[in-house]
Design brief:
heterodimer; A: mainly beta; six-stranded mixed β-sheet; 10 strands; 54% strand; disordered N terminus; B: mainly beta; four-stranded antiparallel β-sheet
């Protein structure tokens, strides 16, 4: 699968491979983290969330990992499909103030 | 499917005009947000609200103002638009811990 250790603005992945998207957050007091997917011309859509007292959470084909020690969040997409092509953003919540990180544009190659 | 609506979807106006971007949600959410996003770039929080009569400034300095007189309505106003205000404005609402539902956005171009 494709993976990166640090945040990169773009990620190209072969259809069927796994993808890993990374994000660094800034506020150690943030207690809730969310991944959003934004398709062209649309608003962001919720993918998966994780609370700060957890280090891993799985959804359908997606897994979020949280490392509070280094303030790092990652999203793993299994068996990446063409419909997964989009911009992915992580967001951190602190007292209901939701701040977004820089996005990663994922392109799926056929 | 989220029920949050933004109007207008697209707006082209001249410098110095006053504009209001409308945002309404029918989910009864207490929290509402305005973000500014340039194409392909990250979202910047400009205003948010915890509920009726609550408004807070976000991380991005903005010359806009908001009001929250009713739970379902959170309009954003620019008193005097400038070319630097050209961007996409996204409205969102949330009832839970942090999951937000976004509108389709309002694309503003100031000439």
């Amino acid at each position: 699968g494709e993976s990166v250790g640090l945040h990169l603005p773009t990620l190209s992945v072969q259809e069927g491979d796994n993808s890993i998207i990374n994000c660094a957050y800034s506020n150690s007091a943030s207690d809730y983290f969310i991944w959003y997917k934004q398709e062209s011309g649309k608003g962001p859509q919720f993918i998966i969330d994780i609370r700060s007292n957890m280090d891993k959470r799985q959804g359908q084909r997606v897994t979020v990992l949280l490392n509070k020690t280094v303030k790092h969040l990652s999203l793993q997409i299994a068996a990446t499909q063409p419909g997964d092509s989009a911009v992915y953003f992580c967001a951190e919540n602190n007292d209901y103030k939701l701040s977004f990180g820089a996005g990663t544009t994922v392109t799926v190659r056929a | 499917e989220a029920d949050i609506y933004q109007t207008p979807r697209y707006l082209v106006i001249g410098t110095g005009k006053k504009i209001t971007l409308e945002c309404s949600q029918t989910m009864g959410h207490d929290k509402m947000y305005w973000y500014q996003q340039d194409p392909g770039m990250e979202l910047h929080l400009i205003h948010y609200s915890y509920g009726v009569n609550s408004t807070e400034k976000g991380d991005l300095s903005s010359e806009s103002t908001v009001s929250r007189i009713r739970t379902e309505h959170f309009p954003l106003t620019l008193e005097s638009a400038r070319p630097s205000h050209t961007s996409q404005y996204l409205c969102a609402s949330g009832g839970g811990f942090g999951e937000l539902f976004f509108g389709e956005g309002s694309r503003l171009t100031v000439l």
